[in-house]
Amino acid sequence: QLQLVESGGGLVQPGGSLRLSCVASGFGLDYYAIGWFRQAPGKEREGVSCIGSSNRGGGTNYADSVKGRFTISRDNAKNTMYLQMNSLKPEDTAVYYCAAVLYDCPGPMNPLEYSYWGQGTQVTVSS
Q1: All residues at 6 or more sequence positions from 72 whose CB lies less than 8 Å from its CB, including other chains
Q2: Which end of the chain has fewer beta carbons closer than 10 Å to its terminal beta carbon, N or C?
Q3: What is the pLDDT of residues 14-66, one digit of tens each?
Q4: Cα torsion angle, 25, 31, 92, 17, sign
């Protein structure tokens, strides 16, 4: 069973940066696409970014709201994925989750298409 554990969340001022990590155990990540999602209070879970499996080229995609500010990456040797978040805004405040699915990022970032989920890490952007 693949297990995912996120870390790196916290409180940051607007304009600041955070790097989230997602460590996997149970299976190697080479064949999994990894997505980052977020959910703010009272809102639906939304896709933030996804990176395809290494054996399929590892292509990335981003939600329009985070393009140019967030960067997704992976280190398969460490079984770890990252989400570097720069120029954070108050509207980025949410619980952030990583999720895994075999091979390719699903077209739209639909959370129902992902098989494995972490427990989430809170990100709060506030002055």
Answers
A1: 34, 36, 49, 50, 51, 60, 62, 81, 82, 83, 84
A2: N
A3: 999 999 999 999 877 888 999 999 999 999 999 999 999 877 778 899 999 99
A4: positive
